[in-house]
Amino acid sequence: MARTKICFRTLLGMALFLSAATHAADVANGGALYQRHCISCHGDTGFGVMPGAPDFSRGEKLFAPDSELAQSIRDGVRVMPAFDGLLTEQEILDVVAFLRTFQ
After folding, report:
1. How many Å apart are CA 87 and CA 74, to the nearest integer?
2. pLDDT digits (tens, 9 = 90+) for 10-48
3. Dist CA 55 CA 85 (whole Å)
4. What are 84's strand-pairing partners?
5. 3-state secondary structure of 39
6. Residue range 25-102, CATH number
7. How far is the C-alpha of 16 from the C-alpha of 63, rounded, in Å?
8. What is the dihedral of CA 43, 47, 49, 53, to 10 degrees?
9. What is the DSSP letter of 98?
10. What does pTM read for this prediction?
11. Does residue 60 register a pLDDT over 80?
């Protein structure tokens, strides 16, 4: 019985680890999406081109948690359009991971 519990816990732990690994953000895909959708306003180095756009090159706005950045992308902010429905949740997380490279 004890051996069964240990085996089950090991399998459960491995399943959770593998599940998390398959949903890890893809920085390269985030960069490609940033190039396609974000660069015209946020610039190629993260320095905001549009007035009022955050300066990601200085870490501005990057102190926010991933969930807050993802929500901003999902819903849009001021003149920035909402990307909910245009990007999948995974793609939004990929963009957030790419934004973190500007720090």
Report:
1. 8
2. 544 554 444 444 468 999 999 999 999 999 999 999 998
3. 26
4. 87
5. helix
6. 1.10.760.10
7. 28
8. 110
9. H
10. 0.76
11. no
